[in-house]
């Protein structure tokens, strides 16, 4: 592209300002949307890659081979026995390092007994942890930071929260107001897209005095084991060697070990591909918007080219060659494409904070550190410019001079389904596709938000307390709390819906002794189910007067009864015949709104409790602040040494991961659908501009012969109304298939009115956006039309 062509391109842009602005606007929006979506997908596909040994790290996970009726992949668990690493170390040469961690989850940390910080996601790790995962210490030595009991390493952010500084080596931090810990290291904050992002790390040896858990414990099954394989090792060979690691232990002989590469830990550790489908949908939307902006570009280029027939004919007369003419057209389209890319980069950078809030991520935009992405964008811009300009360039340069002077080449496509119409049809199809998906997902969010989950959400609060005093009676505490008129009920449970689920396996009476079903176990107070507002479908509930229920009887849910194959479960036994079923509760959701309800087994908890429990409260929301203050004071009196927070259940429900993904996807669809509609308006503008330019003299002759402005307006609009109908034939099946491909146990069925609404919406948008040009053409003086050029 020489300087003369650049000058000619610049003059052409300035001479046709409306077309130039429309072209640049359409491509800028398309490129910016593509950039944002590509950044999001790249971010999600690059989880954990900040670890230096990313390709060598694997998580050991257990696969229960004798688990029947596996639900939502729950026969695969990321948790392993604490002893797993010791059973492998030194025996299999493929394994270079193994580390064991314990998910401490939420922990209250403070520099004194009053000012506490509740940090979620903390872990305890052994001394090999930093040999496997990459951390950068700013204080202390990571090779010795976890050697001694009562040691803790802090992230820089947490160190600032606790001490307002990061040089806190050898300072003391109180855990749960009772355990003093020595700060042995401070590490830089980890990237947001990393699976293990603990704000603090306890030394694993600290678990011995706290929970009686050691690295050699066989019974501790809630640990996680990560392995760093040697570079030359074959992961499949290593997995086959450790598959039957626990074959010699009767209780867990049916567990097979798997190696899950770090690249799959976040995306699909159990090979369900649910989130990968969501990412593919995002990618499809990005490609659609980019294609749509390219189609707009082609249409507008054709519309502009149609008015340049005499210009091209004159250039041919004075000796311009076909290649020169093609190069001139391509230089113009490439110039617009490059300008649009530069504007799109600026627009994407400005909109990135908004987009981060929409997708709930921490995306960054730095092309200098992401050269592959920069190269992709340049390639896309050049390819878009070439593909958008090649057809009109070749089309114009190939026509005969006489044809160009007469402009008969315009009439050849009048009654055919031309390229322009095909492109507009696909644009409409993409618009309808996104409108249908957006409305469908909006209804899905509303559906799962309002769906009956089997218990009452309103007025429900909970608090997790790690009880250190073993002389606390739940019944006595409940009686005191119920004296307040705005406290309707109080219950106790080991786990709680959408907060913590628990897990385990069980056999059942009448089944094969070696076959088990993965269940959600929960120790509960006698009033737990009634407090939630669930309903029994058979048998009885627990009762405070039946002391014999403790440790002997249980209640199961409907799903468990179906899995066990029982029509009348009352009196049947589970768990090696140790538990007798006294009731069946109607299924209620307790894990998430994405997966189906799993089998549940509920066991009566003792009255005297200690350890980690969840208290739940049904209160009068009208006096929420006063009631929470009263509950807080009462709990402080009862558990003076145990920190806690009282949380509204609605935060747990809406903060659940699957719900957040649905919400994020819905917001993203709405955002990009609006951009897509903008592109559709630009595209229709190009079609109408082309149509008006092509049929200017025809319109003048029709008006002279008596046609009214209304009939002319209808004539001009009818063309793309038919195109919308054609596009619906393409878009509706595609949108339905895309929506149905998103997996969910609670899917809102697509309603016919959604499709009708999408067509009506697009018709209104198209009519509103093109009325100016069509009305202007319909009301134009026919003399001016006949004098056109």
Automatic annotation (TrEMBL):
<dbReference type="Pfam" id="PF12704">
    <property type="entry name" value="MacB_PCD"/>
</dbReference>
<dbReference type="Pfam" id="PF02687">
    <property type="entry name" value="FtsX"/>
</dbReference>
<feature type="transmembrane region" description="Helical">
    <location>
        <begin position="669"/>
        <end position="693"/>
    </location>
</feature>
<feature type="domain" description="MacB-like periplasmic core">
    <location>
        <begin position="20"/>
        <end position="244"/>
    </location>
</feature>
<dbReference type="InterPro" id="IPR003838">
    <property type="entry name" value="ABC3_permease_C"/>
</dbReference>
<feature type="domain" description="ABC3 transporter permease C-terminal">
    <location>
        <begin position="671"/>
        <end position="782"/>
    </location>
</feature>
<keyword id="KW-1003">Cell membrane</keyword>
<feature type="domain" description="ABC3 transporter permease C-terminal">
    <location>
        <begin position="284"/>
        <end position="397"/>
    </location>
</feature>
<dbReference type="GO" id="GO:0005886">
    <property type="term" value="C:plasma membrane"/>
</dbReference>
<dbReference type="GO" id="GO:0022857">
    <property type="term" value="F:transmembrane transporter activity"/>
</dbReference>
<feature type="transmembrane region" description="Helical">
    <location>
        <begin position="275"/>
        <end position="298"/>
    </location>
</feature>
<protein>
    <submittedName>
        <fullName>ABC transporter permease</fullName>
    </submittedName>
</protein>
<feature type="transmembrane region" description="Helical">
    <location>
        <begin position="422"/>
        <end position="443"/>
    </location>
</feature>
<feature type="domain" description="MacB-like periplasmic core">
    <location>
        <begin position="458"/>
        <end position="606"/>
    </location>
</feature>
<feature type="transmembrane region" description="Helical">
    <location>
        <begin position="371"/>
        <end position="394"/>
    </location>
</feature>
<feature type="transmembrane region" description="Helical">
    <location>
        <begin position="325"/>
        <end position="351"/>
    </location>
</feature>
<feature type="transmembrane region" description="Helical">
    <location>
        <begin position="722"/>
        <end position="742"/>
    </location>
</feature>
<keyword id="KW-1133">Transmembrane helix</keyword>
<dbReference type="InterPro" id="IPR025857">
    <property type="entry name" value="MacB_PCD"/>
</dbReference>
<keyword id="KW-0472">Membrane</keyword>
<feature type="transmembrane region" description="Helical">
    <location>
        <begin position="754"/>
        <end position="775"/>
    </location>
</feature>
<keyword id="KW-0812">Transmembrane</keyword>
<dbReference type="InterPro" id="IPR050250">
    <property type="entry name" value="Macrolide_Exporter_MacB"/>
</dbReference>
<feature type="transmembrane region" description="Helical">
    <location>
        <begin position="21"/>
        <end position="43"/>
    </location>
</feature>
């Amino acid at each position: 592209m020489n300087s003369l062509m650049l000058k000619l391109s610049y003059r052409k842009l300035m001479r046709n300002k409306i077309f130039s602005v429309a072209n640049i606007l359409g491509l800028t929006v398309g490129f910016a949307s593509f950039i944002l979506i590509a950044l999001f997908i790249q971010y999600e596909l690059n989880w954990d890659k900040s670890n230096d040994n990313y390709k060598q790290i694997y998580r050991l996970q257990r696969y229960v081979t004798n688990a029947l009726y596996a639900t939502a992949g729950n026969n695969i668990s990321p948790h392993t026995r604490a002893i797993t690493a010791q059973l492998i170390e030194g025996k299999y040469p493929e394994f270079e390092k193994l580390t064991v961690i314990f998910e401490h989850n939420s922990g209250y940390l403070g520099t004194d007994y009053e000012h506490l910080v509740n940090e979620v996601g903390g872990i305890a790790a052994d001394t090999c942890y930093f040999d496997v995962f990459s951390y950068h210490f700013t204080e202390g030595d990571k090779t010795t930071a976890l050697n001694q009991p009562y040691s803790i390493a802090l992230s820089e952010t947490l160190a600032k929260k606790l001490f307002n500084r990061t040089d806190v080596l050898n300072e003391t931090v109180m855990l749960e107001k009772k355990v003093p810990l020595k700060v042995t290291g401070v590490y830089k904050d980890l990237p947001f897209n990393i699976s293990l992002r603990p704000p603090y790390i306890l030394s694993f040896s600290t678990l011995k005095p706290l929970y009686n858990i050691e690295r050699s414990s066989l019974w501790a099954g809630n640990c996680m084991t990560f392995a760093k394989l040697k570079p030359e090792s074959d992961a499949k060979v290593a997995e086959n060697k450790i598959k039957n690691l626990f074959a010699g232990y009767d209780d867990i002989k049916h567990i097979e070990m798997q190696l899950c590469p770090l690249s799959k830990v976040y995306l699909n550790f159990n090979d369900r591909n649910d989130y990968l489908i969501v990412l593919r949908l995002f990618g499809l939307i990005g490609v659609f918007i980019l294609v749509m902006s390219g189609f707009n570009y082609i249409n507008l280029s054709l519309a502009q080219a149609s008015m340049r027939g005499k210009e091209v004919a004159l250039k041919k007369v004075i000796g311009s060659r076909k290649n020169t003419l093609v190069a001139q057209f391509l230089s113009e389209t490439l110039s617009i494409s490059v300008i649009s890319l530069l504007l799109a980069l600026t627009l994407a950078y400005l909109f990135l904070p908004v987009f981060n809030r929409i997708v709930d991520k921490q995306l960054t935009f730095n092309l200098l550190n992401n050269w592959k992405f920069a190269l992709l964008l340049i390639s896309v811009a050049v390819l878009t410019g070439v593909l958008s300009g090649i057809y009109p360039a070749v089309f114009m340069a190939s026509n005969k001079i006489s044809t160009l002077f007469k402009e008969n080449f315009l009439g050849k496509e009048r009654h055919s389904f031309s390229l322009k119409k095909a492109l507009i049809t696909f644009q409409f199809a993409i618009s309808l596709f996104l409108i249908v998906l957006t409305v469908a997902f909006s209804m899905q969010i509303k559906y799962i938000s309002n769906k009956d989950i089997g218990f009452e959400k309103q007025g429900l609060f909970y608090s997790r307390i790690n009880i250190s005093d073993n002389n606390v009676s739940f019944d006595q505490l409940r009686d005191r709390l119920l004296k307040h008129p705005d406290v309707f009920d109080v219950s106790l449970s080991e786990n709680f819906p959408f907060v913590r689920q628990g897990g385990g396996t069980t056999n059942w009476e009448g089944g094969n002794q070696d076959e088990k079903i993965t269940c959600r176990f929960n120790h509960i107070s006698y009033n737990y189910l009634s407090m939630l507002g669930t309903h029994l479908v058979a048998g009885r509930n627990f009762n405070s007067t039946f002391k014999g229920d403790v440790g002997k009887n249980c209640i199961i849910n409907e799903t468990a009864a179906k899995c066990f194959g029982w029509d009348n479960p009352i009196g049947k036994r589970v768990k090696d015949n140790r538990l007798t079923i006294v009731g069946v509760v109607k299924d209620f959701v307790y894990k998430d709104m994405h997966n189906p309800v799993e089998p549940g087994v509920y066991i009566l908890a003792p009255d005297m409790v200690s350890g980690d429990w969840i208290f739940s409260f049904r209160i009068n929301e009208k006096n929420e602040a006063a009631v929470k203050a009263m509950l807080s004071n009462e709990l402080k009196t009862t558990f003076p040494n145990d920190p806690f927070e009282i949380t509204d259940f609605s935060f747990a429900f809406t903060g659940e991961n699957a719900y957040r993904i649905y919400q994020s996807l819905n917001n993203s669809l709405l955002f990009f659908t609006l951009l897509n509609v903008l592109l559709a308006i630009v595209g229709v503008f190009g079609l109408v501009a082309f149509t008006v330019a092509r049929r200017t003299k025809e319109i003048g002759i029709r008006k002279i012969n008596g046609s009214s402005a209304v009939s002319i307006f209808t004539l001009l609009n009818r063309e793309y109304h038919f195109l919308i109908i054609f596009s619906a034939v393409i878009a509706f099946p595609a949108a339905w298939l895309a929506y149905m491909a998103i997996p969910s146990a609670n899917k809102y069925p697509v309603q016919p009115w959604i499709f009708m609404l999408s067509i009506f919406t697009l018709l209104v948008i198209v009519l509103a956006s093109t009325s100016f040009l069509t009305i202007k053409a319909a009301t134009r003086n026919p003399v001016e039309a006949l004098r056109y050029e």
